[in-house]
Write a structure and sequence with these properties.
The complex is a heterodimer of chains A (111) and B (116).
Chain A (H helix, E strand, L loop, with lengths): L2 E4 L4 E4 L4 E8 L5 E7 L6 E7 L4 E4 L2 E6 L4 E6 L8 E8 L11 E6 L1
Chain B lengths: L4 E3 L2 E4 L5 E6 L6 E7 L6 E7 L2 E4 L8 E4 L6 E5 L8 E8 L10 E2 L3 E5 L1
Parallel strand pairs in B: 2-11
Antiparallel strand pairs in B: 1-3, 3-8, 4-5, 4-9, 5-6, 7-8, 9-10, 9-11
């Protein structure tokens, strides 16, 4: 069955550093991959979408890569701020547009 | 513009009791989703509607869960009877189009269900 793996341990970094989150998937060939941010007690919020033919996508301080050979996506936040502290969810999307969410990685940015 | 509105925000019920959740999507969004999110997990799709039609309900436990979207706008998700394992956050979301890569999915705040 399709499996999405995100690091279950929280990532704890110092303000100003770059945060890098990993998403690995197996038994799956998604055509697209989305990243969401979820704050405690809130619904997920869409951040970025990357297509399988795109290697990299940027939006302000965010950067996403998509390696279909490694079956992996990396999500980077540069110049991180305490306000970036949240859980980040990876969600590959198949050709039928069905999203499958990973369990998320919690990011903590220390001031 | 108002986002996706869900109610109730919190619900505590005893097992075997029924419960219903209501969702009002963003105006003009024809695709509506219900997801369930267990603690520490990502959301899992229960059902997806395009207008009034349920186009994907393969993950909906049909023995106790039901959903409807009358007139292609508001939607209700019902559980009857509830079991302890149904304790979770029930998220409603909506998008324009068919929810494809060009259509951003917007989530509501969720309805938190605790079954005791």
């Amino acid at each position: 069955s399709q499996k999405i793996e995100q690091n279950s341990e929280a990532l704890n970094i110092q303000e100003g550093k770059t945060a890098t989150l990993t998403c690995n998937y197996t038994n799956y060939s998604p055509a697209y991959l989305q990243w969401y941010r979820q704050d405690p007690g809130r619904g997920p919020v869409f951040l970025l979408l990357i297509r399988e033919n795109e290697k990299e996508k940027r939006k302000e301080r965010l950067k996403v890569t998509f390696d279909t050979t490694l079956k992996q996506s990396l999500f980077h936040i540069t110049a991180s701020q305490p306000a970036d502290s949240a859980t980040y969810l990876c969600a590959p999307m198949d050709s039928s547009y069905k999203l499958i969410f990973g369990s998320g990685t919690r990011l903590l940015v220390r001031p | 513009e108002a986002g996706v509105v869900q109610s109730p925000r919190y619900k505590i019920i005893e097992k075997k009791q029924p419960v219903a959740f209501w969702c009002n999507p963003i105006s003009g969004h024809n695709t509506l989703y219900w997801y369930r999110q267990n603690l520490g997990q990502g959301p899992e799709l229960l059902i997806r509607y395009e207008n009034e039609e349920a186009v994907d309900d393969s993950q909906l436990p049909k023995d106790r869960f039901s959903a409807e979207r009358l007139k292609g706008v508001d939607s209700t998700l019902k559980i009857q009877p509830a079991e302890l394992g149904d304790s979770a956050v029930y998220l409603c979301a909506s998008s324009t189009g068919t929810g494809g890569p060009g259509n951003t999915i917007y989530f509501g705040e969720g309805s938190w269900l605790t079954v005791v």
